[in-house]
């Protein structure tokens, strides 16, 4: 099966609308993510309160993730995404109005952060679960690659644009964010295809009658249980979470190294700009590479590249060298993300996709948050140079463990024949004694 190239995939009207709406919404989110802490600082002058607002959004995501996945599998996914966009548009619009009337308060900002976090979690879970039905399993790597490229472009230009919007007025970023959610909702309403497969009448009736908390909790456990019996996804999710801990700690670590080299704020930003450019370059080829090469090989190469590149941060003589290291280290991350996501979506039954996607995302995001929180303490205890070498050793262990894992080495290319067969044949969760879609016996 040949991979569908980006221009051909963009002729898919539904996917073009989904991608365009998501891109506009991401720009608005970037504007609001910068405006929120700046607004808190302007209101209170407290960096702690600014951090609390950001932390509440992350906490809402972590706590609601598994439940959002279950709702994405139970509800009509497109309707859920439209209502999430409408809710976030109202939140951003209310913030802009309160700002314009000089009535904005910290309780409103706290509530906005929590509510937006919950709605955003449900939106992402439903969107991830719907994508294979929008583009088809064979086009998943190409579709995910285009989404990664769009996200990379927003990462490169979004921060400067957000700064310009905030400079134009404190109301402007929230207004732009509200309008972006409206645009996203309109694009979703214009789509014609189905976001989920038709379920048998018995299953639909069961969900309609199953409004009890016990049944809902059982659905959450069902998704987690299915994921637990997939050896490749389970192992690579744990590896990715372990890598995210290092990544979270590395954010503050790289800033500390850059400042120790005498880098100006501009060059500190340029270091992360290098990482964004590296990721953007990787995203440009991620769909083709993920479709051609096995997932296990991509995971091993990425981890070995990170393990070899990360210690170079300790040896970099200046900020441009740090930027070059960041670009090289980030090059394969979007390729792995596309391959891993396409593989997971391809082998996951449609009725479980929301729960499986939410579970993996919640775990990796929680690990990233833990690493970010631990970064400052580790730098204080170990020192920045020692922490660089410790992170390099951690990455080396992850690379060795992944290389030694037989099921990972045997995983097929994303969107390949085996994975596509997993979609067709995965109308139910596999029994413990039958072969899984990954070519091995399902582990307990």
Shape: globular
CATH class of the largest domain: Mainly Alpha
Mean pLDDT: 81
Biggest sheet record: none
CATH topology of the largest domain: Growth Hormone, Chain: A
Number of strands: 0
Query: CATH homologous superfamily of the largest domain - what is it?
Result: MFS general substrate transporter like domains
Spatial gap, N to C terminus:
33 Å
Which structural class do the helices and strands define? mainly alpha
Fraction of residues in helices? over 70%
What percentage of amino acids are in beta strands?
under 5%
> Do you know the CATH architecture of the largest domain?
Up-down Bundle
Number of helices: 19
- Catalogue the unreliable spans: 200-211, 417-444
What letter string, H or E per element, gives the SSE order? HHHHHHHHHHHHHHHHHHH
Indicate the radius of gyration in whole angstroms.
22 Å
Number of domains: 2
What would you say about this model in short?
The chain is an all-alpha fold. The chain has 19 helices and no strands.
